[in-house]
Amino acid sequence: MHEMEKATVRAGGVAAETKARCDTNTSRIGTRPETFTCTVSYRGKTAEFRTSVSIVSKRLTAKPGEDFPSGTEYRYRLSAVATKLVLTREGVHRQWGYHPSGGDDEYRCDADIPEVAVMPPGPTPYRCYSLYRPGFKTRVASYRVVLSAEDGEHPDGSLSFKPANSQSSA
């Protein structure tokens, strides 16, 4: 759950209190293969993760000095993939380096990015821009805001920017 909370905060980009919970019997986790949903509350919204447990190995254990099994030890793998993440305007601005400076370079983002919203992982409808002025022209590089769902076995929840299209104006 801690990894899912970290992924949620990474996607949101702003430190805030989180609370995770999973829709399963936690005492049973790791004793059998299972898929369930976990949620993380963050800034008044809820991120969701599809979580699965698979058993890697199982062996009988014995107490020291006894020759008969006294229990079972399980080794398992837990993976979580985000299905919904929380996006924040402040987090996008912080990650992008937002500062409309009025100098040679300016960094801006769409004005309609919501203060806090729940979105599926992947490209969002929002963009950030780099405006630079070589000589008398203004060039604009456009980047799509992207929420990442996973990174291997750990939920990633990163916020990134992928080039969209470039424009220039006189």
Would you give an account of this structure?
The protein is mostly beta strands and 170 residues long. 11% of the residues lie in helices and 53% in strands. The strands form 2 sheets. It has a 5-stranded antiparallel sheet. Strands 5-7-8-9 form a 4-stranded antiparallel sheet. A hairpin with a 5-residue loop joins strand 7 and strand 8. The longest helix has 11 residues. It is elongated and about 85 Å long. The mean pLDDT is 82.
Itemize the secondary structure elements and their pairings.
Layout: H1 2-12, E1 18-22, E2 34-42, E3 45-61, E4 71-88, H2 89-96, E5 105-109, E6 116-119, E7 122-132, E8 138-147, E9 159-169
Antiparallel strand pairs: 1-2, 2-3, 3-4, 4-6, 5-7, 7-8, 8-9
Quick overview:
11% of the residues lie in helices and 53% in strands. It has helices spanning 2-12, 89-96; strands at 18-22, 34-42, 45-61, 71-88, 105-109, 116-119, 122-132, 138-147, 159-169.
Oligomer: single chain
First-residue to last-residue Cα separation: 52 Å
Total helical segments? 2
How helical, in percent, are the residues? 10-25%
Radius of gyration using CA atoms only: 22 Å
Question: What are the key terms here?
Answer:
mainly beta, five-stranded antiparallel β-sheet, four-stranded antiparallel β-sheet
